[in-house]
């Protein structure tokens, strides 16, 4: 992937996303790049995944459900209730079909960027974290600490984000995706083992 291709994707995204989402997307792309430098991950893959992670975000909920059905992407009852969650798996589908991404690791990082999952690859963790900490984000609690951890301890950082997300969702526990809960349980245990 050369600069020209990146530019082409950016131009296309500019048309598909609202300006807030486009700015967020660039923030995630550069944050992914910085984290990839720290953790020795392929820079191009990290930037590509960051750039495309929300490519399906600005599709209406109704259309998200319709497109998932059309392209035979499985939709759980929880996703039917919370269709915004589908922008991750629909995003991976768009990345492949509309943006020509072939790399399985990049597609999978896009697919799990909202809920996280158990035993993520470093690239998956980077996209999951970068989405949460990019410079434009400002509302999440403990952002200073989580931003610092992002460049020091990936697993601890992942755990703290999942913990705060579940805390935030605890007002409506029935909306918690099993993937988010499983990811939390996994990183919780992993941190116990590492840090006691
Ligand atoms: O698309 P972004 O806004 O950049 O970020 P995102 O894809 O990480 O989505 C963030 C939202 O996703 C945030 O409000 C918390 C929510 N979320 C994460 N896990 C779950 C969830 N929402 C529900 N209902 N269930 C989950 O398990
Ligand atoms: Fe997202
Ligand atoms: Fe995002």
Structure summarized in a few sentences:
Helices cover 68% and strands 0% of the residues. With 196 residues, the chain is an all-alpha fold.
Describe this structure in words.
The longest helix has 21 residues, at 19-39. With 196 residues, this protein is mainly alpha-helical. The radius of gyration is 16 Å and the shape is globular. Helix 2 (19-39) runs antiparallel to helix 3, helix 8 runs antiparallel to helix 9 (143-150) and helix 9 (143-150) runs antiparallel to helix 10. 68% of the residues lie in helices and 0% in strands. It has helices at residues 3-16, 19-39, 43-52, 61-70, 77-81, 86-97, 104-111, 122-133, 143-150, 154-169, 178-195. Bound molecules: 2'-deoxyguanosine-5'-diphosphate and fe (iii) ion (2 copies). The site of one fe (iii) ion (FE) has 5 residues, from helix 2.
Mean model confidence by pLDDT: 97
Write down how many β-strands occur, each being a DSSP E stretch of 2 or more residues: 0
From the spread of the alpha carbons, the general shape counts as globular
**How far from one another are the termini?**
42 Å
Order of helices and strands: HHHHHHHHHHH
| Range of strand content | under 5%
Q: Which ligands appear in the coordinates?
A: 2'-deoxyguanosine-5'-diphosphate, fe (iii) ion
Please compute the radius of gyration using only Cα atoms: 16 Å
Q: Which spans of ≥5 residues are poorly predicted at pLDDT below 50? A: none
Main beta sheet: none
Number of helical segments? 11
Can you give the helix content as a percent range?
A: 55-70%
